[in-house]
Amino acid sequence: TRFDKELDRVKLGEVPGTDIIESIKDYYAVDGKNFGLRIVEYFIRTINNALSQQREDIAQAAYGMLESTPALSRTFFARVLSSPGLPALLFEPYIENRLKQAATASDLVELAGVWVQNHPIVLENAVFTKLAETQLMDKLGRESDPVRAVNAVMDQLDDLERDPGRGLGQIEGGSRFVDRLVYAANLFLLKDLDLERLSREQLLDIGFLREPKELRSWVSRFDARIRSKANVMLALYQWFGTDHPKREDVLDGLSFAERDQVQYIGRGWLQREVKPEVFEWITLAFCQDVETGAVDYGSLLDFVYKYGDSPETVYEYIQWSADQPLFVRPRGLVPAYAAAIVSFMKRNDPGAFRNKDKVKRYFDSAPQALQPAYARARSELAPSWMKFFRNNRKPIMLSSVLLVIVIAAGVTMLTLQANGAFDRKADPVDVTKPPVASQPPATETATEIPLLTAEQVKDGEQGELTELTFHFKQPEACRDFKAGEVTVLDKDGNILFEAIDPQTVSQCAADPAGGTDSTSGDTAGGKATDGQTSDSAGTSTSGTDATEGGQTGETPGGTDTDTTKDGQADTGGSSGKTNVTDGTAGTDSNGGGADSGQSSDKAADQSDASTGTAGGKDGTASGSGDTSNGGTGGAADSSGTTGTTGAPGSGNTLTDEYTSTVTVKLGKKLDISQIDKVNAAGGSFVLTVNSGQGNTDQETGNTTDEKASGDQPSTDGK
Q1: Contacts with 41 (C-beta within 8 Å, 6 or more apart), sequence order
Q2: CA dist 505 to 7, 661, 686, Å?
Q3: How far apart are CA 580 and CA 471, in angstroms?
């Protein structure tokens, strides 16, 4: 027959034309029962000859004819797949080409499902299943939305397996084939997905991230790169998959590189939605340490300001942060965060405090924890002239008062000159003025500079902590002392510690009783003769007045009285006194013969001409006072009275005179040996080594009998 002739020709290696192959295919429909196996042999030989002679067109045409006839196709591939050597020649190249021609991942799954349904024997071919997996991953990589494509493939495979008519679950090995394709799709998401091009919604749609334990068990078989990628994906899912993420759940267990990648991707997602609802998510994007809760505050504020819905979003964030543990400690705002707020406002919003609406909404009504930071920012953003006035308030006020006085004096002089007051000559009047007892001019008490010491104290929870103590002699100076911002510096000027408003404890002594000079308030009885008094520092001054007749009256207790010609007593005796307290001079009030404090052991004898000797011409009083307390200074009045002022004594040694203290608790331990000075209360204080209590009681008020007797005429002689 003609069919036998055509079969013999292909056995000899000929390649028939497509028309002949088409007629043979049609003959299968006529008598496939008797000629079916021989027709299959014809197609096997025809395709093999075409491939051997590089006639791809004939081979593809023959395959197409087979696919158009399902019965012939099943018989053909059953024969090929069951014959040794034929799958590699006639099936595997063909099926690879067919799978590659699938346009999408969904088309590939559909094609593979049809082949399994029509030719269940293909499940026994390892090349087919492997090609299906690799081609599926390749098609998913070309999808514009790979996560959505994977989810679509998952649904398609589920339907293909559960189809009640021709489901793969009813075919032996069909369910296992479906599982392999599902695994391939998930493996694509794990290995080939570019996380930095992924959106937040896409990540949250990845199914295996909902089972973190199973995922970690699965990825444990892969290399370190895949395990690291899985950790990043899980962290992002924990971060953006919950309304109130915890930093422990998100960042704990990540390496530095993994944490940086997670935060980089998260910041990219958050740039498009910086609003109050996601403030918690934004904070995690800048958390640097899980255990300590350290945050990159400066970068955080810049991010919120740059990507916020409005420029004021950053102030809403600052308000929100006032009760968050990462920003506030029991003692107030975290110092680094407070500094970041001030730096941010200086850099990005220097005119913030000139905007009345902003001041009313955010600054005036700010929580208590934010007030110090805003106050510091307001101070640093103030105009230059205001800063100058604030930093030099006392000198400016003093200069203003002096200027007013000068102007008033000038106006008065001009007025008097205009009225001719300076042109009149007054009639000379011979008036003999009685001698008036002169008093040493009063001097203002200078502001006390405290001594500074440091020590380590024990704290039950934190161990040893460092405290700074400012020591005062004057209780009033102690009460007026406000530490404010404290900065601890070493010898090179480096900052060892800084706090805006640390905790302080003040222990100020009570004010001394009236008429006393001692800061401790103790009074020691003593008697000064010849008008001589002694103060608490041991300095004595002379103040003996003589009457016109040259007589001098003495009263017990140190009070001098002047005797006039008529025998009337004149209380003109003045007790001049100079305090030596940390180098600060002070004067007693007139008329007080008894001085508080320690009486000088060197008071002059009543019978000896000493510091209070009276004499001189024209009935005027002449005297000299000598004090010795580390230095000498004098001021002579019109009556010839000379007072001396002691120079600073042991100003850098802690003594019993320092009865008041202000202690600053730093809240941490510093190396005291490294501390050089402390800036506080608008000044700078050098640390004093507390080496014990020094002795500041020096002998003062010594008088020289030779000077009194040699230089001054005796009262009795006059």
Answers
A1: 7
A2: 113, 8, 20
A3: 17
DSSP state, 362?
A: I
Q: Which DSSP symbol is given to 398?
A: H
pLDDT in tens, 395-444: 767 777 878 888 988 888 788 777 776 665 555 555 555 555 444 444 44
- ∠ CA 166-170-174 to the nearest 5 degrees? 100
Contacts for 191-196 with beta carbons within 8 Å, 24 or more apart? 191/226, 191/229, 192/137, 192/140, 192/141, 193/146, 193/147, 195/229, 195/232, 195/233, 195/236, 195/261, 195/265, 196/264, 196/265, 196/268
Rounded CA-CA distance 656/324 in Å is: 47
Mutual angle of helices 335-348 and 371-380, in 10-degree steps: 40
Predicted local confidence at residue 513, as pLDDT: 52
User: Which residue pairs from 682-685 have beta carbons closer than 8 angstroms and sit at least 24 positions apart in sequence?
Assistant: 682/484, 683/449, 685/449, 685/450, 685/452, 685/470
3-state secondary structure (DSSP) of residue 660? strand
CB-side neighbour CA atoms (13 Å) of 94: 25
Return the amino acid letter for 190: L
Residues paired with 287 in a beta bridge: 295
How far from 197 is each of 144, 284, 613, CA to CA, in Å?
11, 21, 102
3-state secondary structure of 21: helix
What is the three-class DSSP state of 499? strand
Number of H helices, E strands in the chain: 25, 17
What is each CA distance from 578 to 537, 539, 575, in whole angstroms? Answer: 8, 6, 10
DSSP state, 91? I
For strands 328-329 and 332-333, give the pairing.
Answer: antiparallel
Largest Cα span, the chain: 180
Of the two residues 439 and 474, the one the predictor is more confident about is 474
- Tell me if residue 98 falls in helix, strand or coil: helix
Structure tokens at 581: 């307290």
- CA-angle at 422, arms to 421 and 428, nearest 5°: 95
CB atoms within 10 A of CB 220: 10
Per DSSP, 687 falls in state B
Torsion, Cα of 441, 444, 445, 449 (10° steps): -130
Which pair of tokens denotes residue 287? 């958390």
Rounded to the nearest angstrom, the gap between the alpha carbon of residue 416 and the centroid of all alpha carbons in its chain is 65
CA distance 606 to 608: 6
| SS3 letters across 544-591 | CCCCCCCCEEEEHHHEEEEECCCCCEECCCCCCCCCCECCECCCCCCC
Residue-wise pLDDT tens digits, 248-306: 889 988 999 999 999 999 999 999 889 999 999 999 999 998 888 899 999 999 999 99
Tokens (6 digits) for 33: 């029962």
Q: Residue 321: beta bridge partners? A: none
Per residue in 49-83, is it b (16+ CB within 10 Å) or e — as a string? bbbeeebeebbebbbebbeebeebbebbbebbbee
